[in-house]
Amino acid sequence: MAMQAKRPLITIITPVYNAASLIVSCIEKLQQQSSVDFEHLVVDGLSNDNTVELVRDCQQRYANLRLVSEKDQGVYDAMNKGIQHANGQWLFFLGADDYLYSTDVLEKIGTHLQQAGSDVQLLYGNVYYEAYSRLYDGMFDHEKILKRNVCHQAVFYRATVFAALGNYSLLYPSEADYEFNLRCWLSGRVKQIYVPLTIAWYAQGGLSGAGRDTQLVHDYPAITTRLVAQGQWPAAQKINLLSKVFRKLVQRYPAAVWKKACQVPGHSLTCYLAMAWMIGTLPFYLIFKNDKDSPA
Question: Is residue 3 in some structural domain?
Fold first, then answer.
């Protein structure tokens, strides 16, 4: 009986289209990592330059380099294809113009991944934001994820999390990773661990620098409310978390929008209790917020 090949600890997925000027450097920098327990999966969308030829040439030198080349519907569809073809226990997405912060990043993060309990589905750190010469952006709690996204170049997902929550939605052409991370943080189904390591240099290009996704902005009230209301949270924690969601919506959206978002089928009572809690605690929130914002 043939022995089954050992799964690599990490699959690094790089979606590309016409990336001939970037892909060789991307591949070679990854191959400089001190850890070898990873595969690099390049997902090409039928480039019409010589991207594919360059990757195939690199495959002659690197046994852990794989290529999938087929038509896709954009970068998130390519990322979904990468999820489908990946062999790794953990998945990491890296653009062709991004690169890991140091040559021992995978070795360091690999130690944390191997030590993570089976209940841990997501592990994340920081990225170095080149445009602003600073790190982005520390630990994310529920309130922080409601304001902004975790940079996907800082996140390692256990492969099974996509089977549990679904893949990236193609409804959101430039911020599907944010919508997926909202699922991870707000559903109560995914345990996350923050590791204070700098994972990657982040170049503000591609979709991440393309501005807000208007479809996600439109759907945000319904998405955030539904995720928490239907999530696996203890009752008191659910009401408290929903009140934070509603506070955010009241600040950003017209009344008709956030009132409609409260109407989650089967969870109306919970939503109304959370709204009442939000209204009742609003004066205290404003007092503490003003104190925090005031100069010392």
Answer: no
3-state secondary structure of 294: coil
CATH code (residue 146): 3.90.550.10
Residue closest to 206 by CA, chosen among 51, 54, 53, 78: 78
In a shared domain, residues 159 and 282: no
Which among 82, 96, 213 has a CA at the least distance from the CA of 149?
Answer: 213
Crossing angle for the helix pair 214-229 and 268-293, to the nearest 10 degrees: 110
Nearest Cα neighbor of 156 from 110, 205, 202, 103 is: 110
Same domain for 254 and 171?
no
Token digits for 9?
């600890």
Give first-to-last CA distance, the chain, whole Å.
71
Is 2 contained in some domain? no
pLDDT tens digits, one per residue of 103-155: 999 999 999 999 999 999 999 999 998 888 899 989 999 999 999 999 999 99
Looking at the structure, tell me whether residues 181 and 233 fall in a common domain.
Answer: no
Query: What's the gap between Cα 71 and its chain centre?
Result: 23
Estimate the crossing angle of helix 268-293 against helix 235-252, to 10 degrees.
60
Using alpha carbons, select from 127, 33, 15 the residue that is nearest to residue 76. Answer: 15
DSSP assignment of 253-286 equals S-HHHHHHHT--TT-HHHHHHHHHHHHHHHHHHH
Nearest to 145, CA basis, from 106, 115, 95, 185: 185
Asked if residue 133 and residue 20 are part of one domain, the reply reads: yes
The range of the structural domain enclosing residue 110 comes to: 10-209
Task: Supply the pTM of this predicted model.
Answer: 0.90
